[in-house]
Design a protein that fits this description.
There is one protein chain. The protein is α/β, with parallel strands linked by helices. It folds into 2 domains: 6-125, 3-Layer(aba) Sandwich (Rossmann fold); 136-262, HUPs (Rossmann fold), CATH 3.40.50. It has 8 helices and 10 strands. It has helices at residues 15-31, 49-63, 76-87, 110-117, 151-161, 176-195, 210-220, 242-250; strands at 6-10, 34-38, 67-70, 91-95, 122-125, 136-141, 164-171, 200-206, 225-229, 255-258. Strands 3-2-1-4-5-10-9-6-7-8 form a 10-stranded mixed sheet, sandwiched between helices.
Length: 270
């Protein structure tokens, strides 16, 4: 079973942050976890602070939870990352508004910066998500060595929620070796999940943009969650993997992004 014990939600009262807080509350009840909401003030006299604080007090009543509310002053992503470590959060759920154009290839949003700077899993979601569970999970498998590291989390969540698992084997490359590697990794993934008593639906999208193929497939099967590694098609410096950027950016379906070193519980035989 998943062992989330402390969920952190960046919260500013916007619709997407409300959706994130609601999902966090659902998971807190399921896992008997604690929850921290964080509003990063822009100035000492931040005009929105009183409104956000009142909203948190109301959500405590609505959800029947004690919500720790922190309100540091500073740069949003830096303070969120600091607080994650300070409170010992092991899951972050945050709203995202989606971007386009130049930001597609540069980590210009708080969501990108938080995902790329913390070791804990981060679920990003847009305001349109209105479900209370993750009954259908889509798992992209590419040719990167880290791609299979998401499988322990996939198995744990699938067991807990009784989820249907969909693996999409995908690569942007058209050469034989890339396709062979992807198919091998998919077969290994299916075998490992089968050892956990989990059945998998498999599809392939070769020679296409992995992020777009994943989004299209996830929408076609009405998925509730996409799980991927942050370093798929890695770049250097402040860049995240291209596929992770695009998914966090555009997906109307929640995306759980895992850092390779954040996956610590192995599947039997993995």
């Amino acid at each position: 079973m998943p062992t989330f014990s402390h969920i952190l939600v960046p919260y500013d009262g916007t619709e997407s942050s409300e959706v994130a807080l609601k999902m966090a509350s659902e998971l807190c009840h399921r896992f008997e976890a604690s929850i921290t909401a964080v509003y990063v003030k822009k100035t000492e006299t931040d005009s929105a602070f009183d409104r956000v604080e009142e909203s948190i007090k109301q959500r405590e009543k609505d959800f029947g939870l004690n919500i720790q509310f922190l309100h540091p002053l500073g740069r949003m992503y830096k303070e969120i990352v600091r607080v994650i470590g300070e409170v010992g959060a092991d899951l972050v759920i945050m709203g995202t508004h989606g971007t386009s154009g130049f930001e597609e290839f540069w980590i210009g949003s708080n969501a990108y910066r938080i995902v790329s700077r913390t070791d804990v899993p981060v679920i990003t979601m847009q305001a349109n998500f209105n479900k209370e569970s993750f009954k259908k999970i889509v798992v992209p498998i590419d040719q990167s060595k880290d791609t299979r590291q998401k499988l322990p989390m996939v198995a744990q969540l699938a067991h807990y929620f009784g989820s249907e698992i969909h693996i999409i084997g995908a690569t942007k490359y058209t050469d034989y070796d890339s396709h062979k590697t992807v198919k091998l990794y998919v077969e290994q993934s299916v075998d490992l999940l089968a050892k956990e008593g989990l059945e998998v639906v498999v599809t392939y999208e070769m020679g296409k943009n992995v992020a777009q193929a994943t989004l299209n497939y996830a929408e076609s099967v009405n998925a509730d969650l996409v799980i991927m590694m942050s370093e798929s098609e890695p770049s250097s410096g402040l860049f995240m993997g291209t596929n992770a950027q695009q998914l966090v950016n555009h997906s109307k379906i929640p995306v759980m992004t895992l850092q390779p070193k954040s996956v610590g519980i192995a599947i039997t035989g993995y």
